[in-house]
Amino acid sequence: MGSFYFGFDRTFILVIIGMLLSMAASGYVNYTYQKYSKVRNKKGYTGEDAARFILNYSGIHNVGVQQISGDLTDNYNAQTKVLSLSQAVGPSSSVAALGVAAHECGHAVQDQVNYTPLKLRASLVPVANIGSTVSIPLIILGVILGGSSLLINIGIFCFSLAFLFQVVTLPVEFNASRRALAILKEGNILDAEELPMARQVLIAAALTYVAAAVATLLQLVRLIILFGGNRRDD
């Protein structure tokens, strides 16, 4: 049986690439948000104003809007029907804040129209969480037990669930941004000069999800390379 370890082997370059991509995406979204957080929208809407307008404009009257602590911790909870805006977004009248608030409203619209990828992502949350938690321990246990193919296969499969969740997340996030930009335009919340700014913020945010999916894929490939051909039959 070959030697198995999670140290600095040649495949670790895949992890490094994933980390660099994630760091680059995170840095870009922070840079873009900070840039356009200094630009106030001409009509003086705050993030909360925009969120309430978009919800009403979309015929959604059963979703509450609240402010939460943190920086860019904004989210929409489909179970509680609550849209939460961070302290950096809710009271801010910047173009960046309106873009983020509109994006979260995009998720509320998806929920209202029963957008299939959103429902699929919600169903994957528990299995993805379990998979990402138990995958590595199962693989390590399989190695300790002499390269048990059953445990290693289960571990790799569990990790692949985390990647599947990342993949399903992509259309959900891109679609929410598309809906957000359309309503910001149709509702005349942002003008022709401000819309491209909001679009840049949402594109930057979307790239973080792309980077996360690629990083998870590279980690999955690494696990397959390390353990895929070095198992004994049970």
From TrEMBL:
Pfam (any one): Zn_peptidase_2
Key words, A-Z: Membrane, Transmembrane, Transmembrane helix
Transmembrane segments: 12-33, 124-144, 150-172, 201-225
Presence of keyword Membrane: yes
Protein name according to UniProt: Peptidase
Organism the protein comes from: Vagococcus entomophilus
Lineage: Bacteria, Bacillati, Bacillota, Bacilli, Lactobacillales
